[in-house]
Amino acid sequence: MSQPTTGLGIDIGGSGIKGAPVDLDSGEFLRERIKILTPEESSPAAVTDIVARISDHFPETARGPVGITFPGVVQNGTIHTSANLDESWVGTDARALFTEAVGRPVRVLNDADAAALAESRYGAAKGVRGTVLMTTLGTGIGTALVVDGRLVPNTEFGHLEVDGHDAESRASSGAKERDGLSYSEWVNERLQRYYRVIEDLVWPDLIVVGGGVSRKAHKFLPLLDLRTPIVPAILRNTAGSVGAALAAAQGLEVP
Ligand code: BGC
Prior knowledge:
The protein is α/β, with parallel strands linked by helices. Helix content is 32%, strand content 25%. The longest helix is centred in the C-terminal third of the chain and has 20 residues, at 183-202. The chain binds beta-D-glucopyranose. The site of beta-D-glucopyranose (BGC) has 17 residues, from helix 3.
């Protein structure tokens, strides 16, 4: 069977849940995406309700693949970590929950993994051989590793312990906001150290930086002193939804 050329992508994040139908040839949205704020109590029931609303909003996608990201480790559709959403997600079979909510099979994958798939197909890592490390800077730090075009799922380098701290608690853009840091303070006191540690451990050929703050990449990427080329993501905040739809179109099974 040939692969579908459109799909619905839904990106669950700490602050918003976004979705749009995606043209899988171009990696672009076919209609304006919708965004619903993540409820304060981000329980499985509350988030699943929003996923169903987003799916209902795009009835034209009703027969196609649906991909859904989650900001935590996802194996075989089950959530294993949930650093920035309700803890009761841990152990939840999200695939079963969402499949029931949208009335058709879904693929669930980590948000940074989805973003990396999208950047590899359509964006900053398109055609790049070797090891690409994607980092998404947001509420937390998401990471994904793509080796010669193949995703190694569920790397969690945002939780590396750096100088005695969980890295994302100091180096994410959420931490920058929380602590009122300027771009140069953020780079000099936190980001430089984080990226140096990770490049010394992974030795990637390219680092791609996504997440909302990548829109301001010109303000902080040039301040970093690294051996690895580091570039902003091209798809920016559409990457999660686009990658989710792409992953679902490629197959509903693991990873
Ligand atoms: C989670 C990752 C996720 C990242 C970005 C981290 O706290 O552990 O799985 O990719 O946040 O949302």
